[in-house]
Here is the input.
Amino acid sequence: VLSLWRRIGRRGLRLFWGTTRWEHRRMANRMGRIVAASAKPVLVYVVPFDIWKLRTGGGQRIAGIAKALSRDFNVLVLTSAWSVRKFAWHELGPDCHLLAAPTGAGFMERWRGSKGAALFAFCDDFGQLPAFRAVLAAVADPARAWGCVHPIAWPVVQPYVRPEQPVFYDAHDDYAHFLQHAYGAADDRLVARILDMERALVHRAAAAVFCTPDDRDAARRRNPERAGRLQVVPNGVDTAACRVVCPGEARRRRQTMGVERPLAVFMGSIHKPNREAAEFIVRELVPAFPHILFVVMGLDLATCRKAGHAVADHPNLVWTG
Here is the structure.
């Protein structure tokens, strides 16, 4: 009976406050319980794009770094998510939570078809993200440190960061290069803008970590006075989570599909490191192993050719697009 009255009371409050205010209150209560459950200082790790399902390499990197940081911090990873309809959370590990704030339907509509400009939607249209603003407001007071995954997060996060709070920058790419080669941005003003944001974040950050030495060195050339604080944290492989398929089972599955030869599969999105990997596969591996069928997924053959990569046709090579 008591449980029934509680449900009735919650429904009444929801009707009284309205859906948005109710969700914000629900979010604030959940955040308060997560913060209070640990004696460790709170670190807020802001991701200005959707990693809720953790199905990307970037999402897995963020989750891995967050779990490593949770040895010393109560880590709250905040993701701006279009894959959820209301505030959601789940535990990545002890003292480590992923929290999703919905962007709402149509958030990216005005950016559709733009080349490069859409990358700035998070900071340019942050006023249209009330759920994310509410999350930041709720965590700003207990936060002891901050992390940013992308330069576009810094203009949004900066007003919430106090002078005594350390900040780290987790750079997944050389973003100026990424803008031009992954988004096809031809507007130099967009590149200059991302570099201005990067410069502001690098100068505020106690540490900036990059995936590769080339990305780090490019940022060092742009920010020589901060060179000592720019380091490499390479992507790791979670071998414990890898799914093992024994050779006999793999062979049986191939034969069921009508494929007799061993398969070597590469999958990646169409940006420069993946195009370079595909070029290496085509140039070095495909001719060296004619008995293996190589499959390249996610990359478009015409786009790779247009970018000047050597992607000659081979009888043991398949491009799925």
